[in-house]
Amino acid sequence: MDTRVAMLAFRSSGQIEGMTARALERVLKTTDAHVTLAINGGESFAVPAHERLNTVYWPKRESLGIAYNLVANATNSRFICFVHNDCLVPEDDWLPKLTAVAEQHGFAFPEVVVDWQEAAERGIGGLGRLADTLPPSCCYVVSREAWNDLGGFSDEFEGCHFEDTDLFMRALRVGYRLAHVPSVTVEHRRGFTRSQTTDESNTAFVKNRAIYNTKWTKADGRVMFPGLWKESQHGGLMRTANSVHPEVQG
How far is the C-alpha of 73 from the C-alpha of 8, rounded, in Å? Predict the structure, then answer.
């Protein structure tokens, strides 16, 4: 499969460099994909060279959505795999598994695990825990067809909040499925970029939440969120019940 891996990094602490290097090493070791690392503002730093790694640096920090749009639109690969730099992918054929599902449904998401005790020991705090029915934005594959249909991430969101949730909702609305792939497990180590602040004290989070709520609130006042399509006991995919926009039909 023709898949480009996209990863972003922003050096907000001295630990970002090592974390990013570990994430890159695992991706390059376990796949034959080409990888683009975008150092998105802040102080630049070096990563180990590799023939399949292309590193770009932008002095001015862009929002996550705009930065990922720049990376994804600079290639014509049939699939795009977004991997956060605080993730460790498994040491097996994880990417072909995700890509095959994305080819069928448009999007494919692994099972994501977080060692919360280990994260607390590293001083990672202030981050909420997602329901297991929500698609994890730290690692997933999207087909180029779906990406082009949706126009990538919206540029109305600042920083790194809700642009992914909005993309997933728009995908559901036009008929794509956010397919869960339980045979692939990714470790999300929770990074340092926003570890020292709560969501409620983060200006971009509060602003982006208001934008999202305006777009995705039903007439009865409920805010809708995207739900994963998971395997049912009878085979095939079943839409999770917590979240789907009323216009989306299975």
Answer: 14
pLDDT at 133: 81
The confidence score (pLDDT) of residue 126 equals 45
Instruction: Tell whether 130 is covered by a domain.
Output: yes
The tally of domains found in the chain comes to 1
Q: How far is CA 245 from CA 91, 106, 207, 249, in A?
A: 36, 18, 22, 9
| Residue 97 resides in a domain | yes
Q: What is the pLDDT of residues 101-133, one digit of tens each?
A: 999 999 999 999 886 565 555 555 444 445 678
CATH number, domain of 114, equals 3.90.550.10
Q: Where are the alpha helices (DSSP H) in 108-175?
A: 116-121, 144-150, 163-173
144: in domain: yes
Residue entry with tokens 């085979």: 235
Mean pLDDT of the chain: 85
Return all residues near 114 (Cβ < 8 A) that are at least 6 apart: 129, 187, 188, 189, 190
> 188: closest CA among 118, 102, 107?
118
Question: Which H or E element spans position 199?
Answer: none
Angle in degrees, 0-180, between the axes of helices 163-173 and 203-216, rounded to the nearest 10: 20
Q: Which domain holds residue 122?
A: 3-239
Listed as ranges, residues in the chain with pLDDT below 50 are 125-129, 193-194, 233-234, 241-250
- Cβ–Cβ < 8 Å for 188, 113: yes
Question: What was the pLDDT predicted at 202?
Answer: 77
User: In which element (H, E) is residue 71 found?
Assistant: helix 64-73
Q: How many helices (H) and strands (E) does the chain have?
A: 7, 10
